[in-house]
Every structure is written in C-alpha cells, then in structure tokens.
Amino acid sequence: MLDFSKNYFELFGLPVGYIVDANQLATHYRELQKSVHPDRFANATEQERRLSMQGSVLINEAHETLKDPIMRARYLLKLNGIDMDDRQDTTHDAVFLMEQLELREELEDARKKPDPYAVISDLMAEVNRRINTLIGQMALQFEAATPEQLSAARENLFKMQFLKKLRFDAESIEAELDDAL
C-alpha cells in the first residue's frame, strides 16, 4: 500500500524540483494507479478498500499537481514553507502589469481586425513564449531555493497566472469567433 506521508515527488519516485520528466511521471502514475486499483481490492477488507480509494485520490491529486507548471510551483513553494493567498497576493511588477493591460487591449481589439485569428495567434504565441521564459527562470530559482530565489519564484508564479488567464481569454475569443461563423 502507499505511504501517505511521502510528498508528491517521493510518491512518484522523482527528484524534488521544478523540472519534471513527463514520461517518468506518466509511467509512475500508471504503475501507482495499478497498485491501488479497486479491482485488486474487491475481496479485501472494508479498510483496505477505503485505503485503496484514498490512495487513488492521492495519486490523481499528485499527478495533476506535478504535471501542471503552476500547480507544481505552488506545491514547491508550499514544501519550502511559503503559502499563497490568491485573494491578496499578486505581482508587484508595475511594468509587467502595464504590459498585461496592453496585451488585453490588443486582445479586445482583435475582434475588429481584418484577420482576428492572426492577431490572436500572434498574441498566444507571445504569451506562450513568456510562460516558457518564466518556466526556465523558475527551474533555476527552485534549484537554488534560497529565500531570495523562492521569493522570485513566487513573483514569477503570479506572472504565470496572469499569462495563463490571458491565454484562456484568447482561446475563448477564438472559440466565440468560430461559433459566429
């Protein structure tokens, strides 16, 4: 049975760090899910079946957390004693916030352009480029894991959340345009 005291990285037999080998994660996920699958515990005691179900839930939660760059960053910050408060915490980078306003205006104006899909595609490419840059920075910050680097990773996490929301909004507008055809 699973050791419920392990952190998500230990559970999957992965080194603790921001960069995760997606293939290893998927392989370990399948192996772990097989080990706690309810069919294996059909003739087990009620307690063993309950532990199997709890193990399955833990494995799914750990997998979702480790495969998503934002959730993984949050989890690493938590492992380092830094909790996030979404209601009050945000980036303090004024330049970044101004850029976000400009990108949002560009997204809203896309509908009025002769080729709105091209504008949205370019915007999403820029957003993806920025997210990838932040992922690279955060990998280094979590590797160093000094208080200063963890603070910088936290700031980059806020920025990544803004960019992810912008990408979602761009995809929504693109879907609206598709529906209007």
Automatic annotation (TrEMBL):
It holds the Pfam family HSCB_C. Residues 7-79 form the J domain. It comes from the Bacteria. The keyword Chaperone applies. GO terms for biological process: [2Fe-2S] cluster assembly; protein complex oligomerization; protein folding. The keyword Aminoacyl-tRNA synthetase does not apply. InterPro entries: DnaJ_domain, HscB, HscB_C_sf, HscB_oligo_C, J_dom_sf. Coiled coil: none annotated. One of its GO terms (cellular component) is iron-sulfur cluster transfer complex. CDD domains: DnaJ (cd06257). GO terms for molecular function: ATPase activator activity; protein-folding chaperone binding. SUPFAM superfamilies: Chaperone J-domain (SSF46565), HSC20 (HSCB), C-terminal oligomerisation domain (SSF47144). Keywords: Chaperone. Co-chaperone involved in the maturation of iron-sulfur cluster-containing proteins. Seems to help targeting proteins to be folded toward HscA. Interacts with HscA and stimulates its ATPase activity. Belongs to the HscB family. This is Co-chaperone protein HscB homolog.
